[in-house]
């Protein structure tokens, strides 16, 4: 009896998990690798003593019918719920308005929950930072930083990582794919997590900010299923973040906290910062995914498909469908 093809998926964010799940459902053997301690990628949550705060993706929409059905499955499992924040928009001219009432979802009890649900059925190797791909006559071999070579040989490799991380892995073994990744510019984002002893009454629970260094603020404690002390999240704009990537934590706080104060936010009891080096794509791409059947190497991710959680899930699913079709 012939064993099913073995696919290595590098990256356990939403795109990688979506691709791996669809491949496994199609009968492939799948191994997924991620450099972090667990799955989720930028759908991340920072946790501390008595508090938590989503510091990556803040919510997701579900406009595609297939993804909406997947979100319904997450809701049924208790891993996601609709979020109805009091939402405002603060514009550059000093005006403010109630923001659009689009249907928004969050992971419950934290943003990592959908990823954890998907990963629960997959063979995931965490703490494995893949540093080299080798193409042999029998397939692909993977090497990980501080670990070395893995013994398995894989029939195909999927890279579900940001473009600047995919390029270096592919240049020597898949130059066409590497070129696609290398020509994609991604921008960073500074995130700041604030903790308070009591709830803040600011008149809003989330806001789009179109002035100064901030782009988004949200009361994380107001999301469904949350517990712990009052916490707020500040995201800086891509332009400001890119211009201040070299700042230390105190330097970030010195500029973001006054911007939050302009919106009514008082000084927090405690704060933390996190630098997302590759948070968004400077110019949106529309490929959905990339697959070289001859080499057996593909790429998926939100950077290929529009930059959202929904785009990441759709990108991973699209790549799985391409792989399952077999050689063109």
UniProtKB/TrEMBL annotation:
Pfam families: Amino_oxidase (PF01593), NAD_binding_8 (PF13450). Residues 72-323 form the Amine oxidase domain. This is FAD-dependent oxidoreductase. The lineage of its organism: Bacteria, Pseudomonadati, Pseudomonadota, Betaproteobacteria, Burkholderiales.
